[in-house]
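Q: What would this complex look like in 3D?
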Amino acid sequence: MNIPIVQEILSANDEIARENRAVFAQHQLFVVNMMASPGAGKTSLILATIKHLPPDIAPGVIEGDLASSIDADTIAAHNVPVVQINTGGNCHLDAPQIKAALPYLPLDQIKLLFIENVGNLICPAGFDLGANLSLVIASVPEGHDKPYKYPGIFAQADVVVLNKADMIDVFAFDVEYFQRGIAMVNPTVPLFLVSCRTGQGIADWTSWLQHTTQCRTT
Amino acid sequence: MNIPIVQEILSANDEIARENRAVFAQHQLFVVNMMASPGAGKTSLILATIKHLPPDIAPGVIEGDLASSIDADTIAAHNVPVVQINTGGNCHLDAPQIKAALPYLPLDQIKLLFIENVGNLICPAGFDLGANLSLVIASVPEGHDKPYKYPGIFAQADVVVLNKADMIDVFAFDVEYFQRGIAMVNPTVPLFLVSCRTGQGIADWTSWLQHTTQCRTT
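A: Here is my prediction, written as structure tokens for the whole assembly.
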């Protein structure tokens, strides 16, 4: 009896995700859905990426959190247009929340929209937001076994960023084991090792993102 | 129309949680529900705690993961009775899953049962498993803002452990800010700073847990 209702929710979500996708296309806006555990460095990666982007790729941000506007305040301090969504107790963003946030962003002035999903390696994977790119961020202190334990989210990633890579030795993080875990569910997904703290790897990642953004919106 | 169905699920869960609680009491078993982000160190804390416990407090473990038996294998290698629950895609353990796992544990030989919930700072908070103690583990690399962003799980914690405390300086982690965030939703909850890697703080934490276990089961 529950399954049809869940399907209804998902198909209603997918319908609005399609509408969002059409709005993004109309505004030539490239949209990244960022998914990660709490504290993996989603906001830090947004800031590090924005710093490296050329000025013609104007960024915007939608922040998703259960509560607080801590991340939106951080983004706003860098003069980037940002909207905060507080989900209450909800463990993921959904397409209707994104649709509701869009009127608060200057869509014609933005080229690249980061959607920072709720910190969660499970639930966000099930909900299409209408984004062009699914980015999964892992971080070294979480451990190299995450792709084996949370295969669903790695399976649907278009790109994976491993943050806090300056801590690989400190946490005895086995990059090859981590990569094999991703390859089991997603053999061709690109992986970037970065440290938002030291700047390591950010240029390569940003250059890839910039290229991908330009290929898909032109 | 959805809310009554969710309530049905929750009240069915609560009913079975009550049954679990009765089984635990009957076997004089103290049960800890461990909740944390992916990679905060739940399995490491179980192992570090077990190592410090006196031999008369025999431990057992239920491991909850979306997929894999990595953590259960680690526990089993230490000759501790363990059952692995794979939730499929589910973002939390529930009381029926615990009930189903109990026949696979030597309940009369165990005094302290650790239930390692799915790595998730949101969903596990909503589901009573029948445990005696709700333990929330945070870790330093996740950042000091977690209580502000995920207040629900901190609000219902009986005790909080901050792991990877040897990294406080490296990650510029502000312990007072973290504590203030917890105090906003849970003013009297005890907090222990530990490092499972270096052993820092484990003796104090284990001594508190041992005392709590003995007070509640005698």
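A: To summarize the key features: The beta strands of chain B are 30-36, 59-65, 82-86, 112-116, 133-139, 159-163, 191-193. Residues 2-26 of chain B form the longest helix (25 residues).
Q: Very helpful, thank you.
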